[in-house]
Amino acid sequence: MKKYRDLSKYARTNLKAYGLVIIAFAILFPLQSAGMLSNSLNGQLIPICVYIVLAISLNLTVGISGELSLGHAGFMSVGAFSGVIAAASLQDAVSFEPLRLVFVIITGGIFAGIAGLLIGIPVLRLRGDYLAIVTLAFGEIIKNIINCLYVGIDGSGLHFSVKNTSSLGMSGGRIILNGPQGAVGITKIASFTAGFVLILFTLFIVINLIYSRSGRAITAIRDNRIAAESVGISITKYKLTAFITSAALAGMAGALYAMNFSTIAAKKFDFNTSILILVFVVLGGMGNILGSIIATTVLYILPEMLREIGDYRMLIYAIVLILVMLLTNSSRAKQMAVSLETKIKNILRKNKNGSGEVTDNG
Amino acid sequence: MDKMVPYPSGAIVPERDLDKKPILETHHLGIDFGGLTAVDEFSLTVGRTEICGLIGPNGAGKTTVFNMLTNVYQPTRGTILLDGKPTAGKTTAQVNRMGIARTFQNIRLFSNMSVLDNVKVGLHNSIKEGFIPSVTHLFGYRKAEKTSTERALELLDFFSMADLAKVQAGSLPYGAQRRLEIVRALATNPGIILLDEPAAGMNPSETAELMENIRRIRDTFQISVMLIEHDMNLVMNICEGICVLDHGKIIAKGTPDEIKSNPAVIEAYLGKKKEAEDSAEG
Lengths: 362, 282
What we know:
Number of helices of chain A: 13
Strand content of chain A: under 5%
CATH class of the largest domain in chain B: Alpha Beta
Radius of gyration of chain B: 20 Å
Number of helices of chain B: 11
Largest interface: A-B, 27 and 40 residues
Largest sheet of chain B: 6 strands, mixed
Structural class of chain A: mainly alpha
Oligomer: heterodimer
Structural class of chain B: alpha/beta
CATH topology of the largest domain in chain B: Rossmann fold
Helix content of chain B: 25-40%
Distance between the termini of chain A: 33 Å
Strand content of chain B: 15-25%
Radius of gyration of chain A: 23 Å
Shape of chain B: globular
Distance between the termini of chain B: 56 Å
Order of helices and strands of chain A: HHHHHEEEHHHHHHHH
Shape of chain A: globular
CATH superfamily of the largest domain in chain B: P-loop containing nucleotide triphosphate hydrolases
Number of strands of chain A: 3
Number of domains of chain B: 2
């Protein structure tokens, strides 16, 4: 009992997150294998997994570390394209697809992590709006670099160029990255199971990090930077820790995302994608991991479900966003939710006891 | 509380080298903000296990001195020797690791974290745990976490706060928040602790308890205490040495008795006799 108490905060808030993901998978996986899911939902499973991972990882930067980053899609794209190149290079060496996928995802994570380090060192000296602006610019820079990058592979290995395909100087072989057209001819090896495992991995890393010495240091810096410094915590080190972890996880998600399509272009990972992920995080609640998961799922599926009403789709989407923001921020709405909950509980209790006695908690 | 620990175990009170070398020395310390000289020619020596008071009228530059000692502000002139080593060019965090901890005039707790976690953040550099144990919760994570929880509880127990361990720090009553700040500072294992107006906003019985606690900290942890305070009763009772600051300059140094009868101090606090009469008439 005492042990449970010690763990209670950890357990209550976060085992719920694990539980939700596992239950969702346990329901959806058999349905998917049996071919009982609609085509549109089936196609959305992997992107949803990817966006959940992105939202959780961005929550680490925005919610836990308290730094507004608008370049998350940039890390996603670094992961995606390094993943694509890794997949092409390993095509013959590793024929077992799930294993190749693991290598691809790890490669994506490592390269995005390195990008996170390179960006983080100069950028984390800035605070607030300035940090947001620079990360935004970074996302655009990455997009433009990949837009003019040509990569090909042949018998002698990888070839890189920033001019055009003919300057790659290849003998035979094939093009992996074709400038503005993006990556072409990807073998689709992503699977729903891989997405599920990646979510669990992300949850494991992020939740463990929050409840550890490093996590305490990160939240301490967010809560009170001056006090954190005064107890000997190195600000740069822990901000970088959070930023790089977040970037690496985004890179992994990006790699999985790319493996779900046969072609993918850099313009997919633009400012709108960064904002989309930020919307998931903000509506799910800053620092709330479970909230990120739910918000991502709902807000990703919603526009697809509203497709039938055509032009009014984005209008409804916007109204939902505004309502959620208003309701979660108003104390009156919270009171109403609490009183509704007690009323329902009372009704349930009354039914259970079978007696007519009602206690008014309203 | 079911158990009382009159003195903490060896785990949280490390051995100290109590030779005659002073813990803190400043030589001709000064700082300018633009054209304004906030503090000038501040030279002071604080001995081992000494309780030293820094007093002066509002705006005299007392907190600025604390900010220079902890390198929140880089001094424009002069040197600071902490445990014989210069602190110039170090960051606030590095200076803390060299052995100086502080509390703040306006309380700066990690208010969204529990009381226990606040102290554990203070233990950050005493109990190491790398990134890999942090994200996996394996490879020595449990041991490090257990040690830091135990030490944090022991420290809290020393201030009779162990039963508040799980309370959110921001929801503590004011007096307890001030105490928690001291516990968190002590957790960093300093050689000298700087208290910025520890008795501000406290009632007489809380102040009496605080005086007792400051003495206990000094005796048990064998550290020096330097404090800024406006409560003269507290300062005169517990300080062995007092330094009076006015308009950024030291106007008197000495024992409480010497300070009480120093005409310069009386003038700084009450004004010249003529002026005092004038203002009484006005």
